[in-house]
Amino acid sequence: MVDNTAHGPNAKKGKKGSSTGGGRMLHPLAQSQDLIGGYYRRYNVIRKQSMSFTASNQRVLAFDMDYMHIMPAETGKTLFESNSKTTSISFNDVVGSKVSRRHPKSFRVVVLRGNEASEQKRYDFEAKSVVEAAEIVEEIKKNMLQYHV
């Protein structure tokens, strides 16, 4: 998919590198809202593991209109050296999210796991600041409202 601003047989070709008819390459699955800069939020967080002897991992928490993506952070490792994967969770499967009262930089996200409504998975994260933790939880709750009416 190429985004050309000039269309039709009478469209003039501009000079190479000019702003008219720029021919910006897009992903084949890109939607029309992606052309105008659709909704997308991205936060660098630390994933806290429930067991104290395991190390905390840096992650990127990204939100688009329908999904929350937990991605590995951009480290110096190459694609094949990294053993972590991206997890995409529909906001339909998010049960809740809240900031910890004891540690205000920490927040929790609870999601449904599998087909059983009784199975849940908890993700514990730590944001860079108290304000960012509150902002992330607010974004999650706002996106949950689309599905939990």
UniProtKB/TrEMBL annotation:
Single GO BP term: TORC2 signaling
Spell out the Pfam families in the cross-references: SIN1_PH
- The annotated region (Disordered) lies at 1-27
Please give the Gene Ontology molecular function terms for this protein. phosphatidylinositol-4,5-bisphosphate binding
SIN1-type PH domain residues: 39-144
For this record, the Gene Ontology CC terms, alphabetical, are:
cytoplasm; plasma membrane; TORC2 complex
Protein's UniProt name? SIN1-type PH domain-containing protein
According to its UniProt entry, this protein's organism is [Emmonsia] crescens
Lineage runs: Eukaryota, Fungi, Dikarya, Ascomycota, Pezizomycotina
